[in-house]
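Think of the structure tokens as a kind of shorthand, similar to the way a musician reads notation: each symbol stands for something richer, in this case the local conformation of the backbone. In the example below we present two proteins back to back. Begin with the first one, reading the sequence and then the tokens, and try to describe in your own words what changes along the chain.
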Amino acid sequence: MKKSSRVYVLILGLWAVTISLAVPAVVEQVELAMHRHWYLGALTAASGLFIAYFWLNGVKDIVYTLYYHLIYRRRTADVPRRGAAADPPRVVLVYCTCNDFSAESLRVSMRQRYPNYETVILDDSRDPRYLAEIDRFAAEHGIRVVRRADRSGFKAGNLNNFLRTADFDYFVILDSDEIIPPDYIDRSLDYFAHYGNAGIVQANHVATRNRNRFMRVFSIGVDSHWIAYQSVKNQHGFLSLLGHGAMVSRECYRAAGGFPHVVAEDLCFSIAARNAGYYTVFAPDIECEEEYPVNYLAFKKRHSKWTQGNMEFIKKYTWTIQRSAMTWFEKLDIYLFTYSLPLTALFSLYVAIHVVILPALHYSVIYPLWMLAPTVAFLLAPMLNDAIFHFRRMRKTALLSYLAHTILLYGSMYFISLRSSISSAFGKSTFIVTPKEDHRTSLREALRINRGEMVFGVGLAATALALTDSVLPVLLLAVPSVFCFYLALMHNATPASGGPLPPLTHTPAPVDRVAIEEPVGVGAE
């Protein structure tokens, strides 16, 4: 497999153009501030650097989205079917669970049209209800259950505890809510046969089984994000194993040294595999099913886990990336996508500079009005893919409602990102299991469990109003934080006004197939 740098050449080129237009205005503001005092100049320069980084991420999102929809979406070539093997490889479906067992998900996933595979449950549960349910399921289906004496190493430790002594040629990682199609094993082996240096085949995913309004409203973001971003990453960035719905070869697992005992074990394992000469390959036509977080609290916990995992990754793996044999654009891809959540803590410095520190010093930085246009465009850039992908699939009013809810949802994550970034930067990161069970939430409970976000939002708005005479600079942070209790109540409403729940498996809507082919031409490495 070969990768091309053309996407990141385009990203950096467009970013350089936009930054070059803004540099004179920023330099002028820094010089004006330096004439007042050196620390005002330093604060203004820091503000300019934050803008440059923010614009780079915005350009990245726009280029990724347009590159997929203008180029990849129209490709139709497929990875060919491999020939029949006299001795089919031995495959193990590894089902990981920790107090979140889903019997139906596993039962459906086990219906593979492949002759040589087995299923093993790796159970880290402590709840007696789940222990009993898993034992009954295993006895009914004649499958193994592997438990360990402790839970060291989080999910990575659970996987290594079994895989280091298991007999297999390939293994498949299944999370508790995972459903893989009947031809998953057979089709994944086609990708391994087609790409001689593939060590991991990552399948595509869609969100199904939306049991309430929260899941139904936000789950469509999964359908659009996976296919677009992973397709581009596959050829022009760093594609990682994404935790589930992935097949790994025995040679790759051993060469990478197993899963590192960190929260972001999937990303770190993928880097170790890449350094050992193995690539992660995206399989867009293998469509698996996952569940969206069941409610706002579950979403917050998952977001906190991702932030802590990425911060731990920054602390432990930054130097590893620098020394790795990866291409420069793969490294840049990791930095831009992985560092964004933990760097919320640094972004808070930008907010503090303009909302607290400079106003308190009776000084303000005034950039040209035209700089507001790219800033707003880059602020909305993460939603561009959703807007394009669902434009013809949804009513326009429904799409606008979804985008507005998305702004509210991710804007409300600022507080939890900030808290998780700081706690993991100066402490130990924690692997948080995303809750799968749902229950009705009262208004009092919604207010109680989100009091941190609400106090933060009110305090931020009050500070901005007192020091700048306006809440506009913090509007997109304060409003979602204050109204997050509304998000916490959304799951109380069931889909279709209390209608029947969606089926366990779904019939995929017609979608454009994406080619997986080796790039040729300018920029191939």
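Once you have a description of the first chain, move to the second and do the same.
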Amino acid sequence: MLYYSGYTRRIGDVDEGSTTTDFLPAERARGITIQSAAISFSWPPLTQSPLTQSPSNTRTHWTGLPPNPSEQPPRSATPHAINLIDTPGHADFTFEVLRSLRVLDSAICILDSVAGVEAQTEKVWLQASNYGIPRLIFVNKLDREGAAFGKTVREVGGRLGVWPAVCGVPWWEGDGLRGVGDVVYLRGVGYEGGGDGKAVHVSSLSVLEDGDAGFAAELKKARIALVEFLAEHDDIMVEAFLNADEDHLAVTPADVLASLRRCIAHQPQRIVPVYPGASFRNIGVQPLLDAVVDLLPSPDEAGDPEISLASGARDSLSQFLAGKLESAQTPKKASKALSKEKAQMSLQSLEACALAFKVVADPKRGVLVYVRVSSGTLTRNSNLWNTSLQLSERAQRLLKMYANDAVEVDTIATGQIGVIPGLKFARTGDTLVSYTGNPKSGPGGAVAGLQLRPIVVPPPVFFVSVEASSLSEEGHIRESLEVLLREDPSLGVTVDEESGQTLLSGMGELHLEIARDRLVNDFKAKARIGSIEIGYREAVTTRSGSVEEVYEREVGGKSSKAGCEVVVGPIGEVVEEGGQVFELADGNVLGVLTPTLRSDGSSSSEETPGLPDNLPLPAVLQAFKNGAAAACARGPTHGYPIHSTQITLTFEPSKHLFSNTTLAALSSAARLAVQQALKASASASSTVLMEPVMLVTISVPEDNLGGVVHDISSARGGNVVSLSSDESSSTETGVDVSRIYAPPDPFAGGHAEAGDGGGGGGLGETKQIVARVPLKEMVGYLKHLRSLTGGRGTFTMVVDRFERMGTQRQKAVLSGLRGDYG
């Protein structure tokens, strides 16, 4: 596309790592797209390149003009600006696709004609449907062995749940692909073998009938199918068909294009135009670019952006700007009601509204915030009010991005994508408004709470640890992680309270591998990335005897002394009447008995002493609680924190209170006594390990349900809690594949040989499995789930509870921790 539009002077190649939009070193090394890249070009091409401002190298270009000059020329006859965002295809980078879909007016779905409709295609298609994105389909790689255009078309209906409108058919000649047939204009578009795709030979239907009668017959058959198909869904096409004396071939291309535009604009989209090609052989790209201009909506024709206000009202942006929302006329925080005229003046002060959909830390240009302007015009040096963070920033410069290159501009108009460098606070999903007023106080009324529909961040499912090589590196690593999180909100950083580990979470192993590479190579952070450590717990199995400890130590020339008596045991086995009960961390319970003291700390009898004034009872109880909690931080056998243990502490001033007793001594005495009691219990009967059990929700196609359930329950030691249908993910296609027109596949192989039943049975119903599974078994589970489900399974998980391990499982875990694998 960039080459034919005159933007570049050579065609990039993924295998060579020379593509324009895959400019990151990691992308070129792996041959995949990791980070979505934005680029703008014109089609048909302008006479000058936007970057060099010099004449482009386009000697001849495809015009798309109809063969009959008397007909009205299509939109693709005049230059149009196209903003293109190249998104990743790997499942680990789903968030890159989500935030790009959020700001797009339309999309092209590229299918592999050898592999057909793949699992990730289904996921992204459903995401695009949720955002109401109009789409075209380009069936690529028709030059490869085993390519099956007809089979892929049928799979579009069976798996994606839409009716494919075949607008182009492959033009086979001999053993290879010569070009494509234009069903709309009834012509053949031939390409020179081994050329760059600019030398295009257009043949009319009459010429084709003389030179290639079989292809001409298929082209007419495709035109008849297209007109009949459009007539079923568009009443105006029925009128055009009748005006053409019911001759399918006589319906004008303008009528066909107009009908396709109406069908694509209908939501939910039920019809999708399909175009063939082979981009590696430079075949079929120009007709696809024509279709982008002719069929897909411009920003003015796209759907009205959805907004929400601080008052909770939801509506479209145009309704808000027209002052038709009650909350827009009467701001919630206004000290007095504004008149309608004042509210209108307030809305007129709203110069521009934009959504920040991406943040990139560029090594040369600093932080770049990508924005899509939804209304108005964004100008250089304007004050921007961040309605999400409720603060103001200045857009000192504006850039128009061309992949990794940039050109400074003065304005960014409605519908355009641009970049604001140097913003300190803007994040992905923030709404930025340009508002004439005092930037320190921010815009008043409803404008201050105006927010465009945010970008939903999917929950992370995979975790690794990040450890600094030295203490001096911790600050730099922390700053680098903050930049990574601002760039990619689908990453997450948490600190494990028990181990002190910094955990980095992401969407998959490749996702975290890329994050690690950026951390080490781009940010030069000296860090070690390890596997996650499972936070096990330890629990006693039998009641200990009574353990009495007296703590005595001299600190700074002053001695302190205190004592207490402790009994520990499993929850429910240490039962003592009276006293005060405290809940500690990890399900531990502390009961403090003071049989000779009243609630105010005084003695209940004349024979026993009470507490002195410097030791009030609440402070004493808190000291015991702190000491017991400290003792529970490390178990007596394996060193893991204590879990589900009941502690009963008895304090009698006549035995445990001394003249030099302090709160610190009481806390230390409690810690020692609990530790000794835990050791005594472990000596009588070994402690057991408890492991974190995750509550896992797995979404899988119905066909894979049995295999996933068997894997969870048998191989991973999990328990299935429930099975249900995932209404949000299930798709009833409602498409009769047998009624879909698809040209024959003369050289079909691969997925086409699996049968002609129409796309493998459709998306099918998605089932949800809710199960409790040990965390250890979930590490790396995403890759295994994808292999079980052909890439269609997804899952989320949260910590449910800790459960005791069985003897065999505990033995296996301890052997693994010691590095003894037998």
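Compare your description with these statements about the second chain. The chain has four domains: 25-295, 306-452, 541-686, 691-817.
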